[in-house]
Amino acid sequence: MPRPPQLWGLHATPSLWAKVLLSALPFILIVSLYLYGSHRRLQENPDDKILPSVTQMAEAVNRMAFTPDKREGKYLLFSDTASSLKRLLTGVVLAAAVGLFLGLNMGIFASFRSLFLPLITFISIIPPLALLPILFITFGVDELGKVMLIFIGIFPIIARDIYCAVSEIPKEQITKALTLGASQLEVVYKVILPQIVPRLVDSVRLSLGAAWLFLIASEAIASTDGLGYRIFLMRRYLAMDIIIPYTLWITFLGFTMDWLLKKFVAWRYRWYLAAR
Amino acid sequence: MDLENLKKKNLLHLQDVYKQYGPKLILDNVDLSVAKGELCTLVGPSGCGKSTLLRLILGQEQASSGTVLVEGHDIGTPDRQRGIVYQKYSLFPHLTVLENILLGPQLELGWLERRRRKKQLRDEACYFLKRIHLEEHADKYPYELSGGMQQRVAIAQALIMKPKILLMDEPFGALDPSTRESMQLFLLELWEELKMTVFFVTHDLEEALFLGTRVLVLSQYYSDSRDQNGHPSRGAKVVADYLLAKTAQSTRVKENAEFLALMNQIRKEGFDPKFLKKVTEFNLKHPDSFQTLTPEERG
Question: Is B26 helix (H, G, I), strand (E, B) or coil?
Answer without folding.
Answer: strand
